[in-house]
Design a protein that fits this description.
alpha/beta, 2-enoyl-CoA Hydratase, Chain A, domain 1, 2 domains, 6-stranded mixed beta sheet, 4-stranded mixed beta sheet, 10 helices, binds octanoyl-coenzyme A
């Protein structure tokens, strides 16, 4: 697939994905969602050497200002439901990606943009970042998982408040609530996101994938997260990486993990 609205660049095995519709504050139109889905279902899994992925927005105003409202008037009844389903399926691909995905939030992360950031494993907020679920201003509700992931991240009271008032919060408040992992000076979001991925890249890749799976298991319907963790732990103990990690510890050297 040719990407029109996503800019991809890979450096040191870290993929930087930039939402590139600056004039529309990087709003997610249908084409962008198709590209995002393709990226996480086919393109990124095929790049087997990746350490992780950073998502960010073009320009200095927005990460992503939401779904593209200008396409909304065609969205009625079942069509709206289908669009929400496709968006949620796409965001689950991100949440379940086996390598760290970090949102470098460099401005507005509103509606679908906040939902996109929340589907990432970690969020770095620039000082100018603004988060919010303003859908009620349009007479709709979040549709890309916002009511669920915001509640998971900040708790029911604040989630209800943010989704019902539609008000934005700044980076400091997002950090205080546990929505943002870090707040950094404007312009340093991607650097910090890369640093976080580099930190995880020194660990066992299978262990990182199993951490993601096991933490996600807490929120999966009908899944016993504790049982999932036991199984995943067992799987990590059967890896060459585990033997290497434990041997390196006893030999007082840095382990060389191979992801096996
Ligand atoms: N969609 C389309 N265009 C947008 C969007 C958007 N979400 N946000 C901004 N733009 C466009 C503006 O229309 C404007 O374009 P133009 O110059 O052609 O008119 C340009 O970006 C710049 O925006 P503003 O002039 O409005 O800039 P301001 O600095 O005055 O305001 C704001 C910035 C506060 C971010 C303002 O643009 C705003 O409120 N945007 C809308 C934010 C919003 O409501 N987002 C949620 C959308 S709903 C959603 O995301 C639902 C997700 C689930 C959908 C499930 C089914 C699809």
């Amino acid at each position: 697939m040719t990407y029109e609205n996503l800019l991809l660049s890979e450096e040191n095995n870290i993929l930087i994905v930039t939402f590139n519709r600056e004039k529309a504050l990087n709003a997610l139109n249908r084409r962008t969602m198709l590209e995002l889905n393709h990226l996480f279902s086919e393109d990124a899994p095929a790049r087997t050497n990746l350490k992780g992925i950073v998502l960010t927005g073009a320009g200095d105003r927005a990460f992503v200002a939401g779904a593209d409202i200008k396409e909304f008037l065609e969205m009625e009844g079942e069509k709206g439901q289908n669009m929400a389903q496709y968006g949620q399926d796409t965001l689950f691909l991100i949440e379940r990606f086996s390598k760290p995905v970090v949102a470098a939030v460099n401005g507005f992360a509103l509606g679908g943009g906040c939902e996109l950031a929340m589907a990432c494993h970690l969020r770095v907020a620039g000082e100018k970042a603004r988060f919010g679920q303003p859908e009620v201003n349009l007479g709709i509700i979040p549709g890309y998982g916002g009511t669920q992931r915001l509640t998971q991240l900040v708790g029911k009271a604040k989630s209800l408040e943010l989704c019902m008032t539609g008000e934005m919060i700044d980076a400091t408040e997002a950090h205080r609530l546990g929505l943002a992992n870090y707040v950094v000076p404007a312009g340093e979001e991607v650097i910090m996101a890369i640093n976080l991925i580099e930190k995880t890249a020194t660990k066992g890749p299978i262990a990182i994938a199993k951490v993601i799976e096991s933490v996600n298991a807490f929120f999966e319907d009908g899944v016993d997260g504790f049982a999932y963790e036991i199984k995943a732990f067992g799987e990590t103990t059967n890896t060459t990486d585990f033997r290497e990690g434990a041997t390196a510890f006893t030999e007082k050297r840095t382990p060389k993990f191979e992801g096996k």
